[in-house]
């Protein structure tokens, strides 16, 4: 793959009409979210959960629901190859489930790192036509770092539920790690602004700042839903539309992708609900909320590894074809 070919496709994402409109939308929504968070009354985790359940469960998951369509395109609709790639997809997901089962703390760390990489890999391409590893990590780390800084108590409780640990122990770690990571992020942002200011639009720096503020001020589940649904999922759909999974105008293409993603999305929701019911029946002493949070985030974690690999493979195949 030539550097020129890669830059051409990246430019197509960052300079496309849909990409530019969405970036302006992100600036407006992030500012509104930050201002709204200031006047928002304190929300419990349970209240946040019911607010974000539908957006994350339907809209957020649907961006991964397009994976079967991508797999078919990668396999050129050859049935044997599609079956093989689908099997590998499922095995990767099951391998992560095994990691969650036996080593939940390690699984959480891997999940967070995978999320940072995958968010950045997709979203940074809408911010810069040139590959920029620093921008990738700055952008992708925001949905993880923001809640850690702004709401360490609730974020610690959520993490503790996932790994079945004492929330105070987790909080002591986050309160130590959060400021250190924030300092590293600020240093990286300073380097980005100093070294690449002539290559990046001022909108890029504005987005990083506004999104960071919104994610710090919003309660953790609302912050995650804001980034996952409003920023990442829309950019994922725009990227696959831009790179040839649909034809026609952006709106028509997104509608097409939504229809194609619906079966896998509904299947994932059904499986997650079934797992939740089984866990509650096996452990009646636990609370419905704790298990619901576990199922939601561990389901996302189990899908992040194969989904991220599929997206990367698809993008690289499109770059090679350019």
TrEMBL record:
Would you kindly state one Gene Ontology biological process term found in this protein's UniProt entry? Answer: carotene catabolic process
Q: Which InterPro entries match?
A: Blh_diox (IPR022270)
Cofactors needed by this protein, per the record, are: Fe(2+)
Q: What is its EC number?
A: 1.13.11.63
Q: What GO cellular-component annotations does this UniProt entry give? A: plasma membrane
Q: How does it sit in the membrane?
A: Multi-pass membrane protein
Q: Give the highest taxon in the source lineage.
A: Bacteria
Q: Which GO terms describe its molecular function?
A: beta-carotene 15,15'-dioxygenase activity; carotenoid dioxygenase activity; iron ion binding
Q: Does the keyword Cell membrane apply?
A: yes
Q: Where is the signal peptide?
A: none
Positions of transmembrane segments: 24-43, 49-70, 134-153, 173-192, 204-228, 264-283, 295-315
Cellular localization per UniProt: Cell membrane
Residues binding Fe cation, per UniProt: 63, 118, 232, 236
One Pfam family linked to the record: BCD
Keyword terms: Cell membrane, Dioxygenase, Iron, Membrane, Metal-binding, Oxidoreductase, Transmembrane, Transmembrane helix
Substrates-to-products reaction catalysed: all-trans-beta-carotene + O2 = 2 all-trans-retinal
Q: What class of enzyme is it?
A: oxidoreductase
- Stated role: Catalyzes the cleavage of beta-carotene at its central double bond (15,15') to yield two molecules of all-trans-retinal.
Family designation: Belongs to the Brp/Blh beta-carotene diooxygenase family.
Matches recorded under NCBIfam families: blh_monoox
The protein here is known as: Probable beta-carotene 15,15'-dioxygenase
Organism, scientific name: Vreelandella halophila
């Amino acid at each position: 793959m030539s550097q020129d070919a890669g830059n051409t496709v990246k430019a197509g994402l960052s300079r496309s009409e849909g990409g530019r409109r969405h970036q302006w939308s992100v600036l407006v929504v992030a500012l509104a979210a930050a201002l709204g968070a200031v006047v928002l009354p304190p929300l419990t985790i349970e209240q946040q959960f019911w607010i974000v359940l539908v957006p994350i469960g339907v809209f957020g998951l649907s961006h991964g629901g397009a994976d079967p369509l991508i797999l078919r395109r990668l396999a050129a609709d050859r049935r044997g190859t599609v079956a093989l790639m689908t099997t590998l997809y499922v095995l990767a997901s099951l391998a992560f489930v095994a990691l969650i089962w036996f080593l939940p703390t390690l699984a959480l760390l891997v999940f967070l790192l995978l999320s940072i990489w995958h968010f950045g890999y997709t979203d940074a391409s809408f911010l810069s036509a040139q590959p920029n590893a620093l921008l990738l990590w700055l952008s992708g780390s925001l949905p993880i770092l923001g809640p850690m800084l702004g709401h360490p108590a609730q974020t610690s409780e959520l993490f503790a539920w996932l790994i079945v640990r004492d929330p105070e122990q987790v909080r002591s770690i986050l309160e130590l790690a959060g400021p250190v990571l924030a300092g590293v992020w600020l240093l990286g942002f300073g380097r980005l602004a100093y070294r690449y200011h002539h290559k990046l639009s001022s909108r890029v720096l504005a987005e990083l700042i506004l999104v960071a503020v919104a994610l710090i001020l919003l309660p953790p589940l609302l912050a995650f839903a804001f980034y996952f649904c409003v920023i990442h999922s829309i950019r994922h759909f725009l990227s696959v539309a831009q790179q040839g999974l649909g034809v026609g105008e952006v709106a028509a293409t997104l509608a097409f992708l939504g229809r194609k993603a619906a079966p896998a999305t509904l299947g994932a929701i059904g499986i997650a609900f079934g797992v939740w019911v089984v866990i509650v029946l096996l452990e009646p002493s636990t609370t419905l909320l704790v298990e619901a949070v576990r199922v939601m985030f561990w389901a996302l974690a189990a899908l992040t590894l194969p989904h991220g690999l599929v997206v990367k493979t698809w993008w690289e195949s499109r770059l090679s074809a350019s």
